[in-house]
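Researcher: Let's run the pair from yesterday's discussion. Sequence first, then tokens, for each.
Model: Starting with the first of the pair.
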Amino acid sequence: MHKPLSFFCVMFASALSAGCSSTDLNPFSSDPVELGSTTANLPPSNPLNVAPYVLRGQVRQLGDNIVLIPCASKTPVKLAIPDALRQRVIDFPTDEKYTELSGFMTHGEASPAVPSRFAFAVSGLNLITGTASECKNTNPRLVAGGHQPYWYSRVSDGTVVLRHADSFDRKEKIEISALADDKQFFKTQDFSLSVDAGICQDGISDKVFGWTATLILDGEEYQGCATQPNSEPDSEWVGRYKAVIEESGDTLTTEMTLLPDHSVVTRYVRKYQPETSEKGIWQVTANGKVEVIVPYSDDTPFDSKRTFRRGNDKLVADKEELNGQVLSLGSGGLNMVRVTTSPMTL
């Protein structure tokens, strides 16, 4: 069975060395073609080019590596994690560790346990708990709360909703806000909410939060913990994109879906061939491009990264980084036309 190695490459699943060269690219070729012998010089990773986001899933230890298995995938993502946070994750007293980590994908080193050339560079903790079912829950809002007395708040759409003790929910418009990487502040007519980066535990559950929260209401100060959004349903990038190429009676259809939790699914449908798919991660760079990264796995025995630029209502990629080599996607590139802003059902 043929399995797409990239949009312009077709490979046998058992032939890991097969791929495509930077010339004579033919999406309808029935034969695998050899990778070039010269490895391209890859640009150094620049963390400032990528906006941090939250990945969530189960954290496990594989050999000397700490990996995250995303909720929407079975593919381990290697973590480049600070020592203090690494130890906190390892020492968490349950085998099942649902974890939300902020960071970005970057180049890493392959290892026997995790052969991918990419790693998730962790910049902070959002949440860790032994409740595995948390994977079913998405949270598109900043949420904060505390106990003794009980209070709860959420921030979204320019408002803060507050529930305090036994009172009804209060929804007030944000009048003043200040946002930074490690601190956020929101002021409404009657109260203020501050959220700061720092380890926090609520005292009534096993949860460890990556943010502390302070509510000031009626001159009183209340402490608590907070979590940042773990999904981005309103992101301008989220949606389904499609490309169709026809040649000599053959058709290759590619569908790429960018999901709110930064997972991506790319499906390939070729005439008279079984459908195949790849799962990976997408992230936005500071220059307004989106990177789609597929880590090495049993299902996709290769690493790939495509960088798309926006062109009207489509995404266009000119090159692909494949197993450490930079390859051209042809003179016209890969043109993915947006067909819906709502992710398809997986």
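Model: Moving on to the second of the pair.
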Amino acid sequence: MNCIADAPEIVRQPPWIAAQCLQTTLSFTTLLLSIKFVLTLKQSTLLNTSTVLLILLCTAFANLHALVLIGIQVHDIVTSALYTEPCDLSFKTSDCMIPTCIIMFCIAGMVICQNALWIDRFVATTFSRFHHRNCKQFGFTLCTLVTALSFLVPFLIFYKDPYNDTVLTCVMTPAGSAAAVNFLFNAIVILNFAAITANILIYFANRRMEKTLRFNLTQRFQAFENKMVSTWVGMVVSVQFAFMTTYSLAMFLIRTEGQHLPDITKQVLRIWFYLVPFSTASLPLISLLALRLCTKNRQASINRMTNQKADHSAYMNHLMKMWS
């Protein structure tokens, strides 16, 4: 095995250790916030079944990534404390194959799931009767497709990789798949941008429907709920877009221009710009805040529509008395 000569010096750099500790903390935060979010979601009646299934699936991807990352970082921290030889601190990419594939599976799953959410909102907006009648089946179908596509991504990315190089941590992808990984991250940026655009369009479509369906309270309220959920999903995707775009751009620049940097600096930058833990931690946090905000707005909307209905009934009774 070709060992990384600077490994002992790199893994004992304060910035490297700080990055490991921060990512581990963010991973534990993801787990705790997800538990809080799921318990809050369980008590809420705001979302329909298909949306709940997709959000829970997306949260599951984030938590699986957090668990794998905790295992990797704890192992790396213990190894760096016990060993001093470069070969003991360098890992063969073949040994990292399983955790690397799981990480890619989780990243792809979160991105595809966020796109499935806007598809769910589009169907709920455009084909409201179909979505209402087949909500559960539609949600399970989308979740199955998301899981299957996410499962395929690591195999498509790594299937030609010889796994014959070494890395400092299993978070880093094999060098033989650099081009495929760059392509994946570019695709992620495009998909996230498409999801943001789609959610904005769905938001304004439901906002318009809410105004035009003034006297149909049922459809008007459905449009209001679709608008709220689109806002929620848009907030989540926007944050994911910011983190993943920064991550993708940083990794691309490090791979293409990194030869001009000292190896120690390059490796420290690679670990610091691994921003997926920020993305996973922000998912349950924003979802929790958005759920509380949407619940509050929903109650206000119910009160407003009820008052409008009461006022309308009083006005009609007044007219009937005038004509009688």
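Researcher: Give me one sentence on the second I can quote.
Model: The longest strand covers residues 91-92.
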